[in-house]
Amino acid sequence: MKIIGICMVLCFLQNCETEDRVNRTYSLENGTLHEIKMDFYSYGIFQQTRHIIGKGVIFEGYSDNDTGKGIAAKGALGADSVIVIFDSSKIITYTNISLENRINIQPSSRNILLNDAYEVITNELYRFTFKEADYENAEEIGG
After folding, report:
1. In CA terms, which of 14, 33, 82, 132 is 20 to 30 Å from 21?
2. Domain-embedded: residue 68
């Protein structure tokens, strides 16, 4: 009886992992002709700056489901807030929003820290492209 119990536990543990491993790339791209500078912060501590003039890939981050926590843009970016500056004259600040506050986000919001803002190319590639509308909606610096 003891052997049957041990065999059942081993079979259960062997089949426990039902979710396939996914390695996902989160790509941030400049779809405008504007200069874009991005500052990444985690818990208020500066992490890195990325910069691009004109169209192209600004940053690529990676996330996977190995930890069991799911795959998230903020994990791939390594940040809980990102400051985006266009042409040294306009600014957008993206912050991590807890699930409780997500209901307050307008459907048209484009927060690069949330998966919903990304275009799903494949299950392994999510892309966010800064558009002219992002530049137009950014606030004037010092204004």
Report:
1. 82
2. yes
